[in-house]
Amino acid sequence: MAEEAHIIARVLASPLEVDAATWNALLAQQSHPTPFLRHEYLAALHESGSATPRTGWTPRFMTLWEGDTLVAACPLYLKNHSYGEYVFDWAWASAYEQHGVPYYPKAVVAVPFTPVPGTRLLARDGAMRALLVQAVCQWCEQEGVSSVHVLFASGDDVQTSAERGLKLRHTVQFHWKNVAPTLGTGVSSLPQAGEGPPASPGRGALAALGRPGGGSNQFTDFDHFLASLSQDKRKKIRQERRRVAEAGVRFRWSRGADISAADWDFFYRCYERTYLEHGNPPYLTRDFFARMAAHMPEAWLLFVAERDGRPIATSLIAIGAIPSGGSSQKDSNLVAYGRYWGALERVDCLHFEACYYQPLQWCIAHGVQRFEGGAQGEHKMARALLPVQATSAHWLAHPAFAEAVERFLEREGAGVEGYLQELQARSPFKTMA
307, 311, 305, 317: which is closest to 353 by C-alpha? Predict the structure, then answer.
């Protein structure tokens, strides 16, 4: 750490080696914190056996200290595979293998199994964030780690990473925003995924499809939301909701400590079945969700679908708050994150109702600012989730491969930009007179 001799770097083998209050206090200072970077969440991944060396996630958390004060930190994992990341680099690993160069272990600065954009590099200020990136790359180079990947990063993380020479990679997610159109048709710029206000120039944001007018008034109810959509989208949603209702399915929801142990157990049956139907064991253990219920109950919202008095499906939503510039709880904006779902019975359109329409209806009723639908899913546009850019940053130790990847990212980035422009012509919102 030549630039700051009084800053000490420590690499930790477990999130439990950092005091929870200290970690969370640093997280609270960041521009785009999420519940998924809270100490309780990371500790639960570790203690439940979900993200451990046995499952291919070896913790090596990087921390910077000024005396006894934590001034920067990030969740760093060594990986011997690329599962559970949602930024796909299998082709890179294959190219390394074909040339006889080891790609694994690699390092990721990420939240395991959680493709939610937000702060990844916790830092007291920009200088400490830059030192943190430098420390991670230097340590990986010394340890013979092939590469560093900062996944689903915030705008601050992206800017600092780019300034330190990391290469940027863009992908597309689909988010819903609780804003009713107020003006004539038009395309406004949406923020980079995970951010509040629009990204400033130079922070890697691409133009994305926005709402007509970009007004700030929230929807008053689900019908008000439907009225903003084009006639064909409005008709389709009503048809899909009617099919679920006519099948005799009714929903109830519970939040936080009101989610019963029985509901958590039923949720996990559904969650596990979703993975097993695709031939894979679930990433997260039942113990992980027990720890969420015990230590982060306020962060969870559960929808349960019932038919004839029996539960048949669930969807689990995370709830977080991002600062809006004030210091009091009143000045926070709630954000909902679509996470997991599963069903024990087949009902036409049940997935759309459980994962989109019920959460959106709840968000409108509770004044939630944004609903993030998770990774991929162009079909989400028909449900008024609009495309936004999500960005990761990459450092590769091998000079020749670093150059080849940079050329690849330039081509891929142009394709992503063209894809976003193509999506602009497919707005689900109607033209306002």
Answer: 305
β-strand pairing of 370-375 with 332-343: parallel
For 16-39, the pLDDT digits (tens) are 999 999 999 999 999 999 999 999
Predicted confidence band at 321 (pLDDT cuts at 50, 70, 90)?
confident
Determine the pLDDT at residue 184: 38
Q: How many CB atoms lie within 10 A of CB 333?
A: 16
Runs of H (alpha helix) within 278-352: 286-295, 350-352
Is a pLDDT exceeding 80 seen at residue 270? Answer: yes
Calpha distance 67→357 (Å, rounded): 50
Sequence-separated contacts (24+) of 344-348 with Cβ below 8 Å:
344/269, 344/270, 344/273, 344/311, 344/312, 344/313, 345/307, 345/312, 345/313, 347/243, 347/244, 347/247, 347/249, 347/305, 347/307, 347/312, 347/313, 348/243, 348/244, 348/247
Residue, of 65 and 332, whose pLDDT is higher: 65
Q: Distance (Å, rounded) from C-alpha 96 to C-alpha 397?
A: 12
Alpha helical stretches, state H, 164-260: 222-227, 231-246
**DSSP letter, residue 118:** B
Our separate counts of H helices and E strands in the chain read 12, 15
Q: Are 181 and 418 in contact (CB under 8 A)?
A: no
**CA distance to 160, 189, 393, per residue, from 398 (Å):** 21, 37, 16
Sheet with 122-123, side-by-side order of all strands? 8-12, 61-66, 69-74, 122-123
| Cβ–Cβ < 8 Å for 28, 124 | no
Residue 179 φ/ψ, nearest 5 degrees: -140, 120
